[in-house]
Each structure stands twice: as C-alpha cells, then as structure tokens.
From TrEMBL:
SMART domains: calpain_III
Gene3D superfamilies xrefs: 2.60.120.380
Organism this protein belongs to: Mytilus coruscus
Keywords: Hydrolase, Protease, Thiol protease
Protein name, per record: CAPNN
UniProt similarity note: Belongs to the peptidase C2 family.
C-alpha cells in the first residue's frame, strides 16, 4: 500500500525469525526526482529487536516461506531448521534437468539421515532476478553402499523418487522459493536440487525443516554449510 502523506504506519503479526523491511516510493528517481530525499524508519515492538541493521548492496537476500507446513488439514510448525547456501555455477555444479545427460549428476546433492518417522519440508530459494529460472527438488531413498553419484544411477531411479505429501515426485517451478513436504520413515536419502539447464547460474539457499534433528551432509565441495541446527529460527534466509 502506498499513501501520499508525510508518514505511514503498518502493523504486522510476526513469528520469530529474520525479516527485511523495504521502504519504497511509487516511482523511481529516474521518473520523479522528488523521491530523492531523506527518510526515517522506526520500529515499535512489544519486545526488543536483536541488532537491526541496514543491508548493504553486496548482501544477497533470499526470502523463504519458513517452517510452517500443512499436514492433514492443519498447520504444523516444524521446530528444527538447517540452512545451506551455495551457488549454481556452469561447468561445476549447474547440471540442469535429467535430460542434460552429461551434467545432471553434477547438481548439488545432500545425504539426509532420518532416525525417526517425521514430517520434513525442503525449501530452495534464489535471489529475485528478472531472468530467474525454475528450480527442481528430487529426493531418493537409498543406502550409501548402493548409491552412485552418476547419471546412470539417477536415470535408473528417477521414477522412484520419494513422493511428497501431494503425491508428486518433487516440484519444478519458477519463483524466488520452491518447497515441498514429505512424511519420511527412518533411513538414508539423497536430496538433489537442480535448475533448468547447465547455463543457469545463481546463488541459492537450501532450508530443511524437520520435527526433530536430522543429519545432513553435502556431497559437493562447492557447497558450504553455513547454518547450524536451530529451533524455530532461520539461518541465511529471510521470511516473506
């Protein structure tokens, strides 16, 4: 909402997490030079805010939907979050879809170990950009002894990908964030995320929300785990 006034005030009901406040004008300074002026933003809260700061131009912001997941008609807030950030890079780990035979197996992959039956939500985020590309999520149940990170293994097991709560084998869609929910049994899984083609390059953040702690290991040296296990907090991402 935009108001022509000296001040505007908005009220939000927010959950614990990290948020970005973006003050903006109706037009850019190229269209209306009058918007080039000083401003002040104030936050009124029932409790103290932790270290609010201005985001610099060099900071990459990725927004996610968070740990809420609909299960059997009710909303379940998953209490554990792990976040891993990385970047799709052509010639290294930007493998594209399964039709990209020579590169698909180079996509970022993660071992996930589940110790008890539980609901798990996987969300992949990318920075907003005009030329964004679709993001895909694939989850396979396997054991380390039989798993091979090559195209033949993925091609043979592609139709056996774990079904999400909607009965699908994983999303593949446009957006700044793509997510899906699973009901997983104890075992070892391989999570693979991919873009449309090997030419697609962008930063990404992978968030895995679970009811209880799960073990996650990256199988790629190009991915750096920057998040630790938190309770009802987000690391490296921001809520919409």
């Amino acid at each position: 909402m935009y108001l022509i006034d000296f001040s505007s005030c908005y009220r939000f009901n927010v959950k614990p997490g990290k948020y970005v406040a973006v003050p903006s004008t109706m037009d850019s300074c190229d269209k209306d030079p009058r918007v080039l002026k000083e401003f002040m933003i104030r936050f009124f809260t029932a409790g103290p805010l932790t270290n609010p700061f201005e985001i610099q131009d060099s900071t990459t912001v990725m927004t996610g939907k968070g740990p809420d997941m609909e299960v059997d008609g009710s909303v379940l807030q998953l209490g554990c979050t792990q976040c891993i950030t990385g970047k799709f890079v052509t010639g290294r780990n930007a493998g594209g879809q399964i039709s990209c035979r020579d590169t698909f197996a180079s996509n970022p992959q993660f071992f996930i170990t589940i110790d008890k039956p539980q609901s798990v939500k996987v969300e992949v985020m990318q920075p907003d950009q005009k030329n964004g590309f679709p993001i895909g999520i694939k989850l396979f149940e396997t054991d380390r002894g039989s798993f091979q990170s090559d195209y033949n293994w993925f091609a043979q097991n592609y139709n056996n990908a774990v079904r999400d709560m909607s009965g699908n084998d994983g999303p593949f869609s446009y957006g700044s964030s793509v997510d899906c929910g699973y009901k997983l049994q104890p075992g070892t899984y391989v999570l693979l995320i991919h873009a449309n083609g090997p030419e697609d390059q962008n930063d990404f953040a992978l968030a895995i929300y679970s009811e209880s702690p799960v073990q996650i290991e990256s199988s790629s040296l190009d991915i750096t785990a920057v998040g630790s296990l938190l309770k009802q907090h987000h690391t490296g991402i921001y809520n919409k």
